[in-house]
């Protein structure tokens, strides 16, 4: 993961109780708690632009998009905060504030989280039966990667400037629209 545990040897229940009292967000894996760093201005703008691009198609399909403050149980031993989560139909919430059935997860990559987002976090997301789309958005170039679950297999696609990505629900992400104006903003 490349991050140092802030606390360790906590049960999931102890983590959830402790986390609810914290001012900053922390992720949890198998007893260890990791502080999350804030994102750059560009990172946060990309999150919003992807959310805006998804929203019209999601609403028509009975789906909603939620921001990075939504905790997700990605695995029995991992609790995370995706940059964006999408739920189609009724959200399954446990412990009053933990989403367990995201349909889609979006992560905007940064130099400090890219390896984690592509590795351990992605491995955990794959275990979510509800998940159909995992989207990785580059911060240093106009590039979107998409993992789609089709017939219980993950299919990979990528798109760069001038391209589009079609998600499993038919929504199309236009790379140029998502990245318009973001490279003028400070990034990491």
Keywords:
single chain, 188 residues, alpha+beta, tt1808, chain A, six-stranded mixed β-sheet, 5 helices, 14 strands, 23% helix
Note the topology.
Layout: H1 12-19, E1 26-29, E2 32-35, H2 41-60, E3 63-66, E4 71-75, E5 78-80, E6 84-88, E7 93-94, E8 98-99, E9 104-108, H3 114-118, H4 120-125, E10 133-137, E11 143-150, E12 153-160, E13 164-166, E14 172-174, H5 175-179
Parallel strand pairs: 4-8, 9-10
Antiparallel strand pairs: 1-2, 1-5, 3-6, 4-5, 6-9, 7-8, 10-11, 11-12, 13-14
Structural features, described:
The protein is α+β, with helices and mostly antiparallel strands and 188 residues long. The protein has a single domain (40-184), classed as tt1808, chain A. It is built from five helices and 14 strands. The protein has helices at residues 12-19, 41-60, 114-118, 120-125, 175-179, and strands spanning 26-29, 32-35, 63-66, 71-75, 78-80, 84-88, 93-94, 98-99, 104-108, 133-137, 143-150, 153-160, 164-166, 172-174. The strands form three sheets. It has a six-stranded mixed beta sheet. The longest helix has 20 residues, at 41-60. The chain is globular and about 50 Å long. The model has no long low-confidence stretch (mean pLDDT 93).
